[in-house]
Specification:
single chain; 314 residues; 3-stranded antiparallel β-sheet; two-stranded antiparallel sheet; 60% helix
């Protein structure tokens, strides 16, 4: 019964279907940015984007860019939303097809990421029920533990924004049903992810999607805030490299590309005396607020679905 309910939870909402009730209330990006605690929540989310990496170097290498993070989330979501219908099974073919719609990496890169995930124990292959010819990709206990950590990190900013709200308690108590439903629901929210990752909506996304792009960009914005002047920052490449586990050359190349795009201006050398343009802050703020809004919508849907499941099992 619960498996059927989780499968239903993973279906995309349809207009007029009642799968996403009209009464659903969640924070828009504009509401989040207008909130009096926005700066606190944004600064916390910056910290997440800079430091949200596993202490395990093998897992860090797999999840060092947006493509790896999307694949991680996609595997868990498809597995939690699986049902008896063959088309719902999280096969390698289906994961390839869904991942390709994001346009984040080539088919060859995807296969390499899957191989690394299997090698380090994040996923395993499981024979499909009733068909030994088909193999399903199954998250391991290690991957589920990483998933709970992901939830802790990425949902915490909403609790910082609304410290008196109890809406997010089930995230931090690691409630298993909420996590399963949360992941299953995400299969119907790809359009939200596409909007957030659309460079037409936010040109900074093109740089965020690069390897360690978010960590590099938000490290410099975070350092500017710490220095008391959001328009100016000095953070040498060596220090930045040690903080985010990436090479100095990679940091320098990304900053050079941001300068070419008019988002910053380097006056010194080696990462010192960088002028941060208003556009960089605007696009960075928009990205964080959009992520938080998407997370809140996703979570409020989860709470409604779990409430419905609880009611049906009473």
């Amino acid at each position: 019964m619960l498996d059927q309910q989780l499968t239903t939870a993973g279906q995309a909402p349809r207009e007029g279907s009642g799968s996403e009730p009209r009464a659903l209330s969640f924070l828009s990006a504009a509401q989040i940015r207008a909130h009096p605690r926005w700066a606190l929540a944004r600064d916390y989310y910056m910290q997440v984007l800079v430091q949200s990496h596993s202490p395990d170097p093998a897992i860090r290498r797999v999840m060092q860019d947006i493509a790896g993070l999307v694949l991680f989330n996609l595997i868990i979501a498809l597995y939690e939303a699986r049902g008896e219908a063959r088309e719902s099974w999280p096969t390698i073919t289906r994961i390839r097809e869904v991942f390709a719609t994001f346009g984040l990496a080539s088919a060859r890169s995807l296969d390499e990421m899957l191989a690394r995930m299997r090698q380090i124990g994040l996923i395993e292959l499981q024979t499909a029920p009733g068909d030994k010819r088909v193999r399903l990709i199954k998250p391991t206990a290690r991957m589920i533990a990483e998933d709970y950590a992901w939830h802790d990190n990425h949902m915490r900013a909403l609790a910082v924004l609304q410290p008196d709200s109890r809406d997010y308690d089930a995230v931090f108590s690691h409630d298993a049903l909420h996590r399963q439903v949360h992941r299953a629901i995400s299969n119907g929210l790809h359009d939200t992810a596409f909007d957030i990752l659309d460079v037409e909506n936010n040109p900074l996304v093109a740089f965020i999607m690069r390897q360690d792009g978010a960590k590099i960009i938000f490290s410099y914005l975070q350092q500017a805030l710490a220095g008391g002047d959001p328009s100016r920052v000095s953070l040498n490449y060596t220090t930045a490299s040690e903080r985010i586990f990436t090479s100095r050359t990679h940091i320098r190349n990304l900053l050079s590309a941001l300068e070419d795009a008019g988002m910053l201006r380097r006056h010194g050398t080696g990462g010192n005396d960088i002028e941060l343009m208003p556009a960089l802050w605007e696009h960075g703020d928009y990205f964080i607020a959009s992520m938080m809004s998407g997370n809140d919508r996703w979570w409020q849907m989860t709470r409604q679905r779990v409430a419905a499941i609880d009611q049906s099992t009473q």
